[in-house]
């Protein structure tokens, strides 16, 4: 981007911030759904959701890359169509920050829920394994039934 900032540049910036906001709203919604699925132990649905979330994250990365040139600009040198446009963009950018923080918090809760599920499953499996070992120990060794033994004496 050149050093001269135009109204067109701020139109692009505003459109990108609005797109980022929509993506982050969707990402926050997916994170909340992910937490619910993790809490309920719905692994199949959780895996489907995680695949869908990857697509949304890729969209977010694309928008972030397009926002990169604006990061080095001095916000005070930007030329806006109106003060209202500037205010709207600032409010949307602030909401993006809020949604990102909220989503990261929900993600941490989801991770904790999945770890609890994993630990619970591991303890159930360990208990089942110990029970099977104990049952085998009390049952004693299992020997095959002996083959019939025919003894006959001659004379």
Written account of the structure:
77% of the residues lie in helices and 0% in strands. With 155 residues, the chain is an all-alpha fold. The chain is rod-shaped, with a radius of gyration of 31 Å.
Series of secondary-structure elements, N-terminal to C-terminal: HHH
Content-based structural category: mainly alpha
**Residues in helices, as a percent range:** over 70%
Question: Helical stretch count?
Answer: 3
Please state roughly what percent of the residues sit in beta strands, choosing from under 5%, 5-15%, 15-25%, 25-35%, 35-45% or over 45%.
Answer: under 5%
How many individual β-strands?
0
Structural shape: rod-shaped
Mean pLDDT: 85
Largest sheet properties: none
| Spatial gap, N to C terminus | 115 Å
Low-confidence stretches: none
Output the radius of gyration.
31 Å
Q: Could you list some keywords that capture this structure?
A:
mainly alpha, single chain
Quick structural summary:
This protein has 155 residues and is an all-alpha fold. The chain has helices spanning 7-40, 43-71, 83-139.
């Amino acid at each position: 981007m050149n050093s001269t900032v135009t109204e067109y540049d701020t139109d692009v910036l505003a459109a990108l911030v609005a797109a980022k906001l929509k993506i982050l709203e969707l990402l926050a919604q997916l994170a909340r759904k992910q937490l619910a699925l993790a809490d309920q132990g719905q692994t199949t649905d959780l895996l489907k959701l995680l695949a869908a979330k990857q697509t949304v994250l890729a969209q977010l990365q694309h928008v972030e890359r397009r926002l990169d040139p604006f990061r080095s600009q001095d916000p005070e040198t930007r030329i806006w169509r109106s003060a209202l446009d500037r205010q709207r963009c600032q409010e949307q950018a602030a909401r993006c920050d809020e949604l990102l923080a909220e989503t990261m918090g929900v993600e941490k809760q989801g991770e904790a829920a999945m770890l609890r599920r994993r630990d619970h499953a591991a303890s159930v499996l360990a208990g089942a394994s110990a029970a099977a070992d104990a049952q085998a120990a009390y049952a004693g060794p299992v020997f095959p039934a002996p083959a019939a033994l025919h003894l006959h004496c001659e004379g």
